[in-house]
Design a protein that fits this description.
The structure holds four protein chains of four kinds.
Chain B (H helix, E strand, L loop, with lengths): L12 H10 L5 H29 L15 H12 L1 H12 L3 H32 L6 H31 L5 H29 L4
Helix pairs in contact in B: 2-6, 2-7, 3-5, 3-7, 4-5, 4-7, 5-6, 6-7
Chain C lengths: L6 H14 L4 H7 L3 H30 L9 H37 L7 H23 L24 H29 L12 H33 L12 H35 L6 H14 L15 H13 L1 H17 L6 H22 L3 H7 L3 H31 L5 H27 L16 H31 L41 H13 L9 E5 L6 E6 L6 H17 L3 H20 L6
Antiparallel strand pairs in C: 1-2
Helix pairs in contact in C: 1-17, 3-4, 3-5, 3-16, 4-5, 4-6, 4-7, 4-8, 4-14, 5-6, 5-18, 6-7, 6-18, 7-8, 7-9, 8-9, 8-11, 8-12, 8-14, 9-11, 11-12, 12-14, 12-15, 14-15, 15-16, 18-19
Chain D lengths: L7 H33 L3 H4 L3 H29 L11 H31 L7
Amino acid sequence: MRGLRKEISPNRAVFEPGERERLRRSLGRAGRIAIGAAAAIVLPAAAWAGNGQNALHPASKQEHAISVLWWVMLVGCSIGFGVIATLLLLGWIRRNRDYLPFGGRDRAGTAIVIGLGVFVPIVVLSILFVWSDLYVLKTTDAPAANSTRMSVRVIGHDWWWEIRYPGSRAVTANEIHIPVRTRVDMLGTTADVIHSFWVPELNRKVDLIPGRVNRLLLDADRPGEYRGQCAEFCGQQHAHMGMTVFADSPDVFQRWLANQERPARKPATPQAREGERLFLSLPCSGCHMIRGTGADGTIGPDLTHLATRDTLAALTLPTKPADLAHWIEDPQRYKPGSKMPGSALTSSQRDALVAYLGYLK
Amino acid sequence: MSALPHSGKATTPRAVARVERARLARPNGWWGMAIFVATEATLFGTILGTYFYLRFNNLHWPPPGVPEPKLTLPLVLTAILVSTSVPVQLSVSAAARGQLPRARAALLFAAVLQAGYLGMQLHLFVHDVHEFPPSGSAYSSIYFTMLGAHHLHVFVGILLTLWILIRTASGLTSYRMNGLRATAFYWHFVNVLALCVLGTQLSPLA
Amino acid sequence: MATTVTEPGLRRVERLERIWVEPRGLLGWLTTTDHKRIGLLYFFTTLAFFGAGGIEALLMRTQLSQPEEKVLSPETYNQLMTMHGVTMIFLFVIPMAIGAFGNYLVPLMIGARDMAFPRLNALSFWLFLASGLFMYASVFMHAAPNAGWFDYVPLALKPYSPGRNIDFYALGLIFNGISSTAAALNFIVTIFKLRAPGMSMNRMPLFCFAMLAVSLSLIFALPSLTIDLVFLELQRNLGFHFFDVPHGGDPLLWQHLFWLFGHPEVYIIILPAFGIATSIIPTFSKRKMIAFPLVALAELLVAFIGFGVWAHHMFATGLPTITLVFFAAASMMVVIPSTIQVFAWTVTVALGRPEFRAPLMFIGGFIVFFVLGGLSGIMFAAIPFDQATTDTYFVVAHFHFIIFGAAVFPILGGMFYWFPKVTGRLYHEGAAKFSFWLAFVGTALTFFPMHVVGLLGMTRRVYTYPSSLGWDAYNLSETIGAFILTAGLLLIFANLAYSRFRGAPAGPDPFFGGTLEWTTTSPPPPYNFPVIPTVKSAYPNWDVEDRRADAARLERGELVFDEGHETPASTVVDAVPDEIVEMPSESPWPLAVAVCTGLLFVMLLTRHYAVAGVFAGLALLAVAAWHAKEPLET
Amino acid sequence: MRTRGLAVGPEFLQWFGLFGAALTWTVQLVVGFGVTIARCGPANAVLGVDVKAWEVALMAAGIALVLLSEGAALSVLWETRNVDESGPPPEGRRRFFAVAASIGNLFFLVIIVLSGTGAVVHQPCHPA
């Protein structure tokens, strides 16, 4: 105790010679740590560009602004981390030295705390606020009302996306087609619980909330498929609620839209006709709509042009005949909790249904 | 340090009065109640906040078909309730001077008024429930939640008062004195609350 | 201190022993009002819940170890995911930090003989235990809460969650909140009123400042959660309308009220960690905390500003930008109290003579994780970036660095640091250091890749994911990390358990700590201090003369208070000795009240409202019986 | 909170310096947030809130009050320039809180200015 008492008694000694050098050397270390920390995060993230759902792989002005914000903040944070890590290392390096820098007096330490802990952050964070929350926010916020030539309605369901094109009869599900380099106003709401619409490579996310229509700008600057996913926990199958945005050249898009507006094709082969009959007689038509037939259900997705879609059940399965057959027989196996019941069909009935659905181009 | 007043040993009105005089700061019990009141105040803050949040969320407030809140009777009742702060405080200062009988009389008087208030309010409450049930709209839901919460607090206050009256029947100790102080503090809080709740309840008339 | 006690002193000590003795055995534990025993009860209870929450986490990590894994059904996963959050927050971190550490240490650090309201203290433990059992009953009925720990409506409303799951959640958290409120109230009054003579607010240990800040946060934050849950129950079971649009309600009301509680909650979780760090660092750096007043301020400020940032959890809900900027600005500035503390800690270490024993190493790990989590936290104050990454694994990474890396590491370090005080024995240093590195590597490996996978588009709360998105490697490494971390934790507890029986004797003050708990014997006697210490600085145990003066006063019988079950109370701000308070001794009633309350909530759950009323009445009667016994009548 | 033999003046300055700015910001946040909710809710049709006027007024009043409390803190800081911050109360304690307050009030000043500016710069009720 006595010894300790002496050690912590203040106002002893002055700045030790050699301490300055040590400080300077370990500040060099700070830089290396900063770079290391940055690399640790950057390299793996940047390495992955091609998964179609990468927030750091922008395909629009908006997402580009966000990723720039991220890279700048990352560098700033790495520097901050470096400074703090250096101070910790200083302690570690000095652990066996028997003198106290600054003679154990608080003044210098307090100065560092107030300088680096108060004034630097106040300035830096105020700048960040002005840049991100006043300036960048103006590029990512909802498009001004009626500032876009076209809009698309997205209605979240447990657990799939209903997509409508105002001013057109086209209705589809889970696959949003938009013309490239065109400002599209996404008007999002929900039929049941809160979902969140997020296509990482195109823009930030926005929640779909009962009683509200939240808007988001979709403006892909190059053609492609952009994957998205529900981001707000919405129940048992939250994990299987994906969607794809197809950004096509305007004429391709127009052709697609014109086709989607048409009623369903009449089946030509006897097997497909049998399939249609089955579809209308079995419970299917109670939940699904196929425009131009008696099927007018509104619980499940509109199947009028099912065969033009790549995937089933919100990106759970591809729309290949085999998968379609499996899905029809036992949806609960692939998406437990989904509203679609399994159905006991003879293999011929099943093949007929699949054949019919394959017709819905 | 043995000169310190020993609240634990103060078991007669005179001894209690001595402790009350000698004490520099308020007793632990008072502080306990103060913190409790703080959390209660926050509770009502969120209820009133919710009331106005829902109000901003609705064009018609109260919604069509729901009568506007009555004005006079609630005003009168609240005035009566708030006035009981006086006898309650008198009771405290009397007890602090060691005058137990006077203290209990004042407290009893207050309790009677408060009980009367609660009775009338519950009558109004039941009447309103029949007129526009809470399941009718967001307005009626928050309306009855807010009033119900306040009536509950009045009820608890009456229980506290009765408890103090029972305990002080067998004389005054510093422990009971602290209880009395705490109860009085609680009542002042409930009375201020009554004003806030009334203001909110009548806000659609403004 | 109590080294050279002679006859008169010894006689006084013996009298104190007689006065403060509690019944032995089970009965003693059931009726105890001793803050140290209650602290231990909290410790072992929360440890059990920590185990449960950990198992839930490991199961989830196993399910996510590779794409399309089938270990858990989606329903089970969602229940585990929700219970993991609820358990770790409400049944582990907070009760461990406040209930166990706070209870055991605060009276010792301020030189008091117990909490201000010992029986209330017992009540808050029994209520906590009951609420925990209440919530875990749901797990065994496979009806555990399954809507995520923030339980958004309308998913949590009857049409989408018809089962009892959500009622378990709502009632359980209301129940738990009662306990936390009681505890917080007790801490505030204790810290205000029971400080040793001379311990004016500027000499109060920083741990106590942290506990004060936490308690104040709880007092002002919990009501909005409680009322939110009451609204939820009223709407679910009695047909009220608060959250549904057709009747003029608003689903966002739930989110506002929840996060008005939920964000202060984050600081409630982290503040005790600050307190522990600010206790360990000066001891092992052998110097006073640098910028002491600023650190104290920072602890209070972070709690305060924490109330003004709630909507940054709602940036993606499409609120008007003019509404969001308020919360963005506050979210930027709430960082600064933390930067103050981080620099104060690191500078204190750098300018001291640090001795890297296990506790200080855990604090080092804490600082690293806290800085990482804090820096990613700053990013969420940038609205557009928050809107891009919220509800992804980037957020999961961020808050696990904060509420595991930053909140739990100091708790682990604190376990080692105060282990000698509690048990009177030393832990095994080598094993402790090794377990630190295991836990450190495990934590980094578990949570760091989540940043990347989040930026790659992995959203949170998914029970599985397709393999086409390049998330597999990251998720596998996270799972591996989780198991390494588990090994580290198990080694820590094995070390403590072993040392409890085989450790070398520690003596009163093995680390030369600066605060008052080190002035008394290890483990401390039921009355904590034979003589109430007087304080002249923020690190009274380093003022050797004063401590010797204590011994002298014991001889003279000054400030011994051996005439009864007594402790002195002082003025709130400057700790001027004010009165002698008779403390209540052991009582069975807190347990009785807790039991009645528990049954009350069971009846509410099963919708037997009349019976519930009966139990409410019984609880009130128990409270009356409790207060009918006044301290002096012991 | 009565304590033995304390002049009221410095006590008031110390506590106002410590809490003034904090409470000011609380008011600005609660009222400022409430105003935006009122302005952007359906009820605005009947209420008709002028959000900019409110926010500007709040910001101006806020800045004034915060500067006042910072002034109080600084004056206590000057009064106690020769006192050790862990010294005996009341001076030591006043010093302690003055040091804390003089720094802490800066944050509140910045928060009030930033959020006020934000609320004025952005156009009312444009969804984020």
